[in-house]
From TrEMBL:
Gene3D superfamilies: ABC transporter type 1, transmembrane domain, P-loop containing nucleotide triphosphate hydrolases. It comes from Niallia alba. The chain crosses the membrane at residues 29-51, 71-89, 144-166, 172-190, 255-278. This is ABC transporter ATP-binding protein. Residues 32-316 form the ABC transmembrane type-1 domain. It comes from the Bacteria.
Length: 603
């Protein structure tokens, strides 16, 4: 789960400047939006001053000339109408800019995720990553739409009101500036505490998404093993923490946002009215000036209140942006590959030379692994769970970077080949194949439009997947739902075989590829694989020893070591671990633990 991180003021400032950097490609649109914002602010400021003129120059002296009053009234109405129109376009422009920015930010995050190594996904729940791409970027959008426009407009408004106050009464305008430090202190206090609260809220929301994602993916296991109550308790615990974090922030907002600002406003209003009241004993005061000053004071606190109410959105956006930028700055990327395109996989000869590997940097899961798979040969990897079979495949596919030793392909280091060459010339079939939402045809060709329909059909026929595909309602255009859940495990596996064969790889990697296929289908697949392996180097992980008896070399692994090697007959003659595994699968084995201990003593 994500850890709650307390953001310092310096971190918040850096995040804000980095967010503002996304505005650069939209400078022209931003300038137009700010220009409209300035015009709407001037329109807001002009209203009270026009009313002041009406009261002091026409109403109080009863100078009710029709023409000047008509001009004044029409001017006021036109300004209000124009203000409405300008505000519409100004808000539209800011929304447009915000959507463009969030669109780019989401693309950046999505692209970055596809460059991350598998180590990152081993430690971060999928739901947490989804939360950053969706919920967090949505919170950032609110900042550009509401916060940025409101803060700038409020800044213009406050600055304009202060100038208007000085024009009306210099002494009183100067005294009113005392309110600014008080408001600044309230804003500072709110920001100081709310940042931590919002960080907690976002992390709890991320945990909720992670728990929900886990529950949906494992729903069948949850129901089979009656885990509903436990999952409900865990979800309720996270949800309660999210609620408590939200309540802490609500209490802070309830104290420092509207109530505190309203209190300062009331004190300011009392002070202004007292000033005019005391001044009236010595000299008469202009009612229009009093109205304008009170109106400006009210409008002075209106943008302050708007800013304070938007501070919550601002804090959410900063916290969310920090979480998004954490993904963008993640250094745990996939292992680097060479950029040059000179090295090509021609023969597919694979050699492991004293390779040692650890997932966590502490415990080695592979120890001095050395073997050679020559062109056209099949090398099978067998051993109990956790012996290191899948780790060898992970290193060969360059999903993880190995520490000691080297892996050679055609005599050249694996690290010297570019990514495109490795992915095009190496085919991988997993035990649990992944199907994308789309059609059967799209899943076989993997959306490579250069592949013809005829080639797709030929690949399906090669692995005999056509037998069930042609019975589907739309055959190769049959819709595949999420993860291909409407197909059986064997059917998904056959589609995965067709997908791999279509790429015509030089190196074929099978990770228990026939585990989910029934016996009759397996026989057909084994026949297809025997044709497919010709001229190709094959690395096959197998639990069922019957599927790899024809392998040229079988490596028996135990706790990250190769404890036996040879072909099927040679290993049976050794009467070691492989022999005991073979007897066990044929229903006539002694304790395999005894054999393992014996082999460890020998090595």
């Amino acid at each position: 789960m994500d850890k709650t991180i307390k953001l310092t003021s310096e971190q918040q400032r850096k995040v804000l400047f980095r967010l503002l950097g996304y505005i650069k490609p939209h400078k022209k649109a931003v300038m137009i939006a700010f220009g409209l914002l300035l015009l709407s602010t001037l329109g807001e400021l002009a209203g009270p001053y026009l009313i002041k003129i009406f009261i002091d120059d026409y109403l109080t002296p009863r100078n009710l000339e029709v023409q000047p009053l008509m001009v004044l009234g029409i001017t006021y109405i036109l300004i209000q109408i124009m203000n409405v129109v300008i505000m519409y376009f100004q808000l539209f422009k800011f929304q447009e800019i915000a959507l463009y920015i969030i669109q780019q930010l989401r693309v950046d995050v999505f692209t970055k995720i596809h460059t991350l190594g598998l180590r990152y996904f081993d430690k971060i729940p999928a739901g947490s990553i989804v939360s950053r791409v969706t919920n967090d970027t949505e919170a950032i959008k609110d900042m550009f739409v509401s916060v940025l426009a409101t803060f700038i407009q409020s800044g213009f408004m406050i600055f304009g009101i202060i100038i208007a106050m000085f024009v009306l009464n210099v002494k009183l305008g100067a005294i009113c500036l005392i309110l600014l430090p008080i408001l600044g202190f309230i804003i500072y206090t709110y920001r100081k505490y709310s940042a931590n609260f919002y960080q907690d809220i976002r992390e709890r929301l991320s945990q909720l998404n992670a728990k929900l994602s886990e529950s949906l993916q494992g729903m069948n296991i949850i129901q089979v093993f009656r885990q509903e109550k436990r999952l409900k308790t865990e979800f309720d615990d996270i949800n309660t923490k999210h609620y408590n974090a939200g309540m802490r922030n609500i209490k802070l907002e309830g104290l420092l946002l509207r109530p505190a600002i309203d209190l300062v406003y009331v004190l300011g209003l009392i002070f202004v009215l007292s000033y005019f009241g005391i001044s009236s004993f010595a000299n008469p005061i202009e009612i229009g000036v009093l109205y304008a000053f009170v109106s400006y004071l009210d409008r002075f606190f209106e943008p302050v209140n708007n800013m304070m109410m938007r501070l919550s959105l601002y804090q959410q956006a900063i916290v969310s942006a920090f979480r998004v930028f954490t993904v963008l700055d993640e250094e745990d990327v996939e292992p680097s590959l060479a950029l040059n395109r000179e090295n090509k996989i021609k023969n597919g000869v694979i050699e492991f030379k004293n390779v040692t590997f650890s997932y966590d940097g502490k415990q080695d899961v592979l120890k001095n692994i050395s073997f050679t798979a020559r062109e056209g040969e099949t090398v099978a990897l067998v051993g109990h769970t956790g012996s290191g079979k899948s780790s060898i495949v992970n290193l060969l596919m360059r999903f993880y970077d190995f520490g000691k030793g080297d892996i050679l392909i055609d005599g050249k280091s694996l690290k010297s080949f570019n990514k495109s060459e490795l992915r095009e010339r190496m085919g991988l079939v997993l035990q649990d194949p992944f199907l994308f939402y789309g059609t059967v045809k799209d899943n076989i060709r993997l959306y490579n439009m250069e592949t013809t329909d005829e080639e797709v059909i030929e690949a399906a026929k090669f692995v005999q997947a056509n037998q069930f595909i042609e019975k589907l309602e739309d055959q190769y255009n049959h819709k595949v739902v999420e993860r291909g859940s409407a197909f059986s495990s064997g059917q998904r596996q056959l589609i995965a075989f067709a997908r791999t064969i279509l790429t015509n790889p030089k190196v074929l990697i099978l990770d228990e590829a026939t585990a989910n296929i029934d016996t009759e289908t397996e026989e057909a697949i084994q026949f297809a694989l025997s044709k497919m392996r010709k001229g190709r180097t094959t690395i096959a992980i197998a639990h069922r020893l019957s599927t790899i008896q024809d392998a040229d070399l079988i490596l028996v692994l135990h706790k990250g070591n190769i404890v036996e090697r040879g072909n099927h007959q040679q290993l049976l003659q050794q009467r070691g671990l492989y022999y005991k595994m073979y007897l066990l699968q044929n229903g006539a084995a002694d304790s395999i633990e005894e054999t393992v201990e014996h082999k460890v003593e020998l090595t």
